[in-house]
Structure formats: structure tokens, C-alpha cells
Amino acid sequence: MKRIILIMGLFSSLFACAQGKSRHVDFPKEEFAGVHLVDDGKPVIIVLNTSLRKFKAKDVFGWSCSLSMRYKETIENGLPTSEEYELVYNYLEELSKQIVGDTSHPNALYLARITWNGTCEVIWQVNNPEPVDKLLKGIIESKSYPRDFDYKMEYDAKWKNVSLYTKKIKIKKQK
């Protein structure tokens, strides 16, 4: 298990805070869509918060946190067994609540969960990376996780690194 943190643009973020800049941000009501794809002959299942496609204040949540957890028990196509899915899903849902924080004034926005080839990746767009990093470091140090995981935090005020999820994936409307 390893932890990767890339700190780019930190000084610009700190400078903006030092200037006392603040603005009102309307948080979108979460709306989710399931997307099923195939990559390298294996199914990819994406649960995507589609409300973030229209979110304008991207720079306020300019840090992208990606956590990847490896499933222990999978079936032939790389998807987890139902018991394994349940274990990892429940753990990551509780972790997400801690990362997001107060839903009326969240520190992070849940963007996507991607299941593919024996892994589950969750992506949040984060306002202040320090509490998230502290939380994840604490979990690693205390070894209080059900499966090994890696995470990375990158500064990406325009959300270019997650544009696959915010712009490119086509979502079919349900009739």
C-alpha cells in the first residue's frame, strides 16, 4: 500500500485564501447514473454524479482525490463477488461521508465510483485537501481498512483530469 500526494497549485490556493476571497456556492443536488462499458474485454461499472456536469464553481473544489481499493475476491470478469462488493461498498460509503463532511457546506463533492478489473476507485472533488489527507493518513497508520488502498490528491482547478466523467461519457436518458 502506498500513498501519493501531488501538491500543485497550493500556493495559488493559499494566496487566494490569504486575500480573504470568498463567494457563495450553490451545491447541486446529487443525481446519479449508472454507466456500463467494456475495457480490455472486462466490464466497467461507473456510478456517476451527473449533477456535477453542470457545476460551475469547479475552482472552489479544485483538488481531485482518487482512492483505489483492490477487491480480494472476484469472479472471472474481474467484478467482485456479492459479499466482497457489499464489504467494500459499505466501507467506502462510510469513508465518503467523512470526506464530504457537512452536506450543507461540504468539503468534498462525490464524483464517481468505478469498478473494473478487481478494483474499486472513488473520486471526490475537494475544497480543502488537508483534512482529507489527514483522515486517509490516519486510516493507513492505524491499519483500519478492510482492503489495501492507494490514493492520490492532485490540484486540478479546471477538472481536466476528471473530464472523462464530467463531459465525455455519454449517458442515455431513461424513458
Explain the overall architecture.
This protein has 175 residues and is of the alpha+beta class. The protein has a single domain (3-20, 31-166), classed as 2-Layer Sandwich (Alpha-Beta Plaits). It has 4 helices and 7 strands. It has helices at residues 10-18, 82-100, 129-142, 163-168; strands spanning 3-5, 32-39, 42-49, 63-70, 108-116, 119-126, 149-155. Strands 1-7-4-6-5-3-2 form a 7-stranded mixed β-sheet, covered by helices on one side. The protein is globular and about 50 Å long. It starts with a strand and ends in a 7-residue tail after the last helix. The relative contact order is 0.23. The model is unreliable at 1-20 (pLDDT under 50).
From N to C, what is the helix and strand string?
EHEEEHEEHEH
Question: If strands are numbered along the chain, what order do they take across the biggest sheet?
Answer: 1-7-4-6-5-3-2
Dominant shape = globular
Overall pLDDT metric = 87
Radius of gyration: 17 Å
Specify the structural class. Answer: alpha+beta
Beta-strand content: 25-35%
How many E strands? 7
Largest sheet: 7 strands, mixed
Instruction: Give me the number of helical elements.
Output: 4
Catalogue the unreliable spans.
1-20
Helix content: 25-40%
Task: Give a short summary of the structure.
This protein is α+β, with helices and mostly antiparallel strands. It has helices at 10-18, 82-100, 129-142, 163-168; strands spanning 3-5, 32-39, 42-49, 63-70, 108-116, 119-126, 149-155.
Helix-strand layout with pairing:
Layout lengths: L2 E3 L4 H9 L13 E8 L2 E8 L13 E8 L11 H19 L7 E9 L2 E8 L2 H14 L6 E7 L7 H6 L7
